[in-house]
Amino acid sequence: MPALPGDSEHSVSLSQVIVTLSGVGTRMLEGLTLALGEEGATVDQWRILQLVSQLEAPTMGDLAGFSGMPNASLSRIVDALEDAASVYRLPTPNDRRRITVRLSDHGAGRLARMNTIVSAWESSTCALIGAENAQALAAAVNGTAERLGIHRVQPA
């Protein structure tokens, strides 16, 4: 008798994939965190600077939606970036209650340095795991994110 779609004998164990993916993600995040430490930045700060740069004056709500971060965590990150003169907040012209986040000149320079660090980290990580594995991982994760409706901003 042919196997039915969804038969556990013949289907992928997504629970095990998630456990393994979590371990892979943790290991990769540790490496990226260490690399960005050279700039005195966190991965979340780099992510938010990337989003601010790519979205061009997003609101805090836009940043929350695209980053998937809770508002309280996002506010702390933006506060730290503002304290470091990397971003500044301004009310929107049409509704002064809504706040936009903008990249400062200092923040643009800092983001450029961070992107150089990230690029070097990506190169060394691709060499470690193999270019074919890196491509396959990126394709699988991006395809899954798209199917799940997870917001993604394309690299600049």
Please provide a written account of the structure.
The protein is mainly α. Helices cover 64% and strands 6% of the residues. A hairpin with a 7-residue loop joins strand 1 (87-91) and strand 2 (99-103).
Residue share in helix: 55-70%
How widely separated are the two ends?
51 Å
Shape: globular
Class based on secondary structure composition and strand pairing: mainly alpha
| Mean pLDDT across residues | 89
> What's the total number of strands?
2
Write the layout of secondary structure elements.
Elements: H1 14-36, H2 43-55, H3 60-67, H4 71-83, E1 87-91, E2 99-103, H5 105-129, H6 131-148
Antiparallel strand pairs: 1-2
Helix pairs in contact: 1-5, 2-3, 2-4, 2-5, 5-6
Sum this structure up briefly.
The chain is mostly helical and 156 residues long. The chain contains six helices and two strands; from the N terminus they run ααααββαα.
Characteristic key phrases:
mainly alpha, two-stranded antiparallel sheet, 2 strands
